[in-house]
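Provenance and format

Records in this collection were gathered into a single text stream. Each protein contributes a sequence line and a token line. The two records reproduced below are adjacent in the stream.
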Amino acid sequence: MTADIDPVLHAPARLQIAAMLARVDDAEFAIIKDVVEVSDSVLSKHLSALSEAAYITVRKAKRDGRQRTWVSLTPKGRKAFAAHMKALHELVAAAQHAVAAE
């Protein structure tokens, strides 16, 4: 394999978050929470890990009289996600090749 699995993105919830954010400009915290099916505190921890790696930006804004949180992938995050997906594809291809050779 030539590509490396990214330990920041390897956690299933973080991978789901990155996959979701790769398709949109940004997403609201509540929507991400519903899609990933985790609690507020668990999502916050995953977002903190992604933010510390500079893979996402988090912005807060008032909307409909409430404070809301919006999350988006940074260019670094998009690049890391693409590289991680490449590594996963290579891993699957190698496994399929090994199984087919048996």
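Adjacent record:
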Amino acid sequence: MSEKKGKWRLTVRKDFAAAHQLRHYEGKCERMHGHNFMVEAQVEGDTLSQDTELLVDFKVLKNMLKEILGDMDHCHLNEHPAFAVHNPSSENIARHIYKGLEARLAGSGVDVKSVSVSEKPAQTATYFEE
């Protein structure tokens, strides 16, 4: 029987405010409206740093998320380059943030597990890759 290898999963949360319009929606959400989006990002790894014994410093992870959200905060998402082709839905926002974190963590031994975006507390879209 093989021995299990432990992993660590870290979670950070941050919110941002933005407006969007869902193209081709055929309902009220096709008109411009806004949300206070809540974002939750989870990363995972199996090796802690030798000096501090951290997977990744929470401060570093929060700053990465803050940087990605910074250019979406208080803007009209339909005008953001990431959503020129794709609808600025919660699903696509989650994917955009995931890809941004993935690029920033490349080569660190820490992988993005998932990114969730909520427009309201009762509804969440989660993006992850298998």
